Amino acid sequence: MNRRKQQTSSNAPDQQQQKNADQGPVHFTIIRNFYLADVITLMNGVCGIMSVFSSMRYLLTNEIGDLYSAMGFMPFGLFFDFMDGRVARWRNNASLLGQELDSLADLISFGMAPAALAFAMGMRTYLDTIILTYFVCCGIARLARFNATVASQPKDTSGKIKYFEGTPIPTSLTLVAIIAYLVSRGQYLDALPLYEIAPTWDFHPWVLIYALSGTLMVSKTLRIPKP
């Protein structure tokens, strides 16, 4: 989510980073500059990466446990995404590095991981992959737009932005919940409904929920109140 991003515009330059710059090159500078919230953000990314690997492993093993593992890592990513903002506010040490880490971790956990899961469970036709690519690209655009416009977003007296433009990328977990339901009912791989447009052009209708989710993320007029 974007709880940490909104704080960056109002923070002074990181004094520790400036100190390191004045001292010249330091080994492992990026690690030395990590705050606790940044480490938690990285755990969000770890969950997303493990989810992608679990989806890839399912393609090799066809073990249903690997598919459920791919689903299970993503809610843990959401937990870490929620906690990093809480910790950053508690310790009052948000940074530009943390903002970028947050966006990249969200892209993996809530963009790439759900798309990889859809592919693994059977949405593998050429048209399916085009729609899944569209979904991931919408996630990229949504995060980039937020980072570019956060400073100009309307804020309340506490400095918190009032609303999101478009749905936040973690809402893609609703897609994961739908896929979990389909898998639990045995509707995956060959049992997944398929619609044929032409002899060589077909797609799985369920992939359209990814198209809808991506479109809602990049919507300019849809405004979601920030809790």
Q: List SSEs in N-to-C order.
A: HHHHHHHEHEEHE
Q: How far is it from the N-terminal to the C-terminal residue, by CA?
A: 11 Å
The biggest beta sheet is recorded as:
2 strands, antiparallel
Average of the residue pLDDT scores: 85
Query: Shape from CA axes?
Result: globular
Strand content: 5-15%
Number-wise, the strands total 4
Based on secondary structure, the structural category is mainly alpha
The total count of helices amounts to 9
In the predicted model, the low-confidence regions spanning at least 5 consecutive residues are 7-13
Structure in words:
By secondary structure, this protein is mainly alpha-helical. Helix content is 63%, strand content 6%. It is built from 9 helices and 4 strands; from the N terminus they run αααααααβαββαβ. The strands form 2 sheets. It has a two-stranded antiparallel sheet. Helix 4 (36-61) packs parallel to helix 6 and helix 6 runs parallel beside helix 8. The longest helix has 28 residues, at 64-91. The chain is globular, with a radius of gyration of 19 Å. Keywords: Endoplasmic reticulum, Lipid biosynthesis, Lipid metabolism, Membrane, Phospholipid biosynthesis, Phospholipid metabolism, Transferase, Transmembrane, Transmembrane helix.
How is the secondary structure organized here?
Blueprint: H1 5-8, H2 15-23, H3 29-32, H4 36-61, H5 64-91, H6 96-120, H7 126-149, E1 163-165, H8 173-184, E2 195-198, E3 201-203, H9 208-217, E4 223-225
Antiparallel strand pairs: 1-4, 2-3
InterPro entries: CDP-alcohol_PTase-I, CDP-diaglyc--ser_O-PTrfase, CDP-diaglyc--ser_O-PTrfase_fun, CDP-OH_P_trans, CDP-OH_PTrfase_TM_dom, CDP_ALCOHOL_P_TRANSF_CS
Protein name: CDP-diacylglycerol--serine O-phosphatidyltransferase
EC number: 2.7.8.8
